[in-house]
Amino acid sequence: MISPIFNQIIKLSATSIINSHIQEMEKLVSSWCKNKSLPESYIFPPETRPGNLVVPTCSTIPVIDLSKAEGQNRTHIVQQILKAGQEYGFFQVVNHGVPESLMNESMDVFKEFFEMPWEDKAMLYSEDPKNSCRLSTSSVNYAREKIHHWRDNLRHPCHPLQDCIKHWPQKPIRYREVVATYTIEAKKLGLRILELVSEGLGLESRYFGDKLSESEILSINHYPPCPDPSLTLGIAKHCDPNLLTLLHQGDVSGLQVFNNGEWIGVEPLHNAFVVNIGNQLQIISNNKLKSVEHRVVTNSRVTRTSAAFFIGPSEDSIIEPEKSLVDDAPFYKAFEFKDFLLHYFPNLEDNEVVMGRFKSQA
Ligand code: OGA
Ligand code: NI
C-alpha cells in the first residue's frame, strides 16, 4: 500500500509541475484571445499578410477518386496523381478507404482535446521540441520568431505505436483508442498513395514502403477565431519537410497553396484528405514531383481544427535523388535526413534556403 505521506508528495509534485506550466500556457492563443484585439506581435509585415482575404477557392486542385485505383482505371489514377504532384504539389483524395465514422470521431476528439480546461492540458505544454508529445503555440521558433502565428498545436509521433501511445493525451478518455485506429488507417492510406506514386515514377511499388516512410507524426492545429484575419496567419508559408502529408482539414476553410504566382484556397471537401508532397519526395524524385509552399489564413467566425499526418523517413535514412530518375545530373546531393531537419526548422519560412543547402551545386 502507498503510504499517505508518499501520496501527498506525489500530489504536491504534480501540482508544482502544473503550476510551473500555468505561466507558459498563457502563451497559447486560445488562453487569451477572447474579446481582445490583435496584438502587435501577431501582425505580419504587409508583404506576407493575407490582406485581401477573398482568394479564388480552387476547383483546380485535383480531386482524385481512389476507389478507381484498384480496377482497370489504375493507370489513369496514377497519371492523375503524378500530374497533380508535378503541377500543384497538392491533391485531394476521396473514397480513400478510411471510414467516414473514424474521420468524424477523430475530428471530434481533436476538438474536444482543445476544449478541455487548461488543468487537463497543462502536463503536455512544452517548449522543448524533443518532447515526445507536446502542446505548444505558434511555430517551433516561438522564442526566436519576430511574429507569432495564430495557432495552438498538439503534436506527437505515432510509430512504433506501443512506445508512443503512452505519451499521448490521457484525456479525452477515448483519445488514445480513437487516434491509434486513425493513425493506423492514415498510414495504410499513405502507403497506398506512395505505391501509386512509385508506379507513376517507374519504381517498384514498395520503394517508399520501408525506412523512407518509417516516421509518423500527428500534428493537430487549433486556430481560434481571430479579431483581424487580414493581418495575421495561422501558419506562415512553408513546405513540409517530410515525404508525404495527409491533412484532415475538417469543414472550415483556411489552407492556401501557392500556384502560378497567387494563393489559392483549398476547398474543404467532406470526408476527403488533402495530400501534399513533402521536400523529401521532391528530392528523391529529382524534381519530378514538387513540394509546394502553403499557408493557413484565419477567420473571425469559427474555430478551425485540422490534423496533419506527416509520413517521413527515419532520421538516419540517407536521402538522395533516385538514380533511375536522374537524366543528366542529380539536382540534389546525398544527405542524412536528420541533417535536413536541423537545417529546416530555423529556416522553415524560406523554402529556397531550406532546399538550397542540399542542391548538388551548393
Ligand atoms: C501543417 C499545415 C495546414 C492546415 O501543419 O504543416 O500546413 O490546414 N497545415 O492546418
Ligand atoms: Ni504544412
Describe this structure in words.
Residues 214-313 form the Fe2OG dioxygenase domain. Belongs to the iron/ascorbate-dependent oxidoreductase family. Its cofactor is L-ascorbate. It comes from Gossypium stocksii. GO terms for molecular function: dioxygenase activity; metal ion binding. This protein has 362 residues and is of the alpha+beta class. It has a single domain (58-356), classed as Jelly Rolls (Sandwich), CATH 2.60.120.330. It contains ten helices and 15 strands. The protein has helices at 4-25, 29-32, 74-87, 100-115, 118-121, 161-164, 175-201, 279-284, 337-344, 351-356, and strands at 57-58, 63-65, 90-94, 134-137, 152-157, 215-223, 235-238, 244-248, 255-259, 262-266, 273-277, 294-296, 304-312, 318-319, 335-336. The strands form three sheets. Strands 2-3-11-8-13-6-5-4 form an eight-stranded mixed beta sheet. Helix 4 (100-115) crosses helix 7. The mean pLDDT is 92. The protein binds N-oxalylglycine (OGA) and nickel (II) ion. The site of N-oxalylglycine has 12 residues, from strand 6, strand 12 and strand 13.
Please render the helix and strand layout as text.
Blueprint: H1 4-25, H2 29-32, E1 57-58, E2 63-65, H3 74-87, E3 90-94, H4 100-115, H5 118-121, E4 134-137, E5 152-157, H6 161-164, H7 175-201, E6 215-223, E7 235-238, E8 244-248, E9 255-259, E10 262-266, E11 273-277, H8 279-284, E12 294-296, E13 304-312, E14 318-319, E15 335-336, H9 337-344, H10 351-356
Parallel strand pairs: 1-10, 2-3
Antiparallel strand pairs: 3-11, 4-5, 5-6, 6-13, 7-12, 8-11, 8-13, 9-10, 9-12, 14-15
The structure holds N-oxalylglycine (OGA) and nickel (II) ion.
The site of N-oxalylglycine (OGA) has 12 residues, from β6, β12 and β13.
Domain Fe2OG dioxygenase: 214-313
Organism: Gossypium stocksii
Catalytic activity: salicylate + NADH + O2 + H(+) = 2,3-dihydroxybenzoate + NAD(+) + H2O
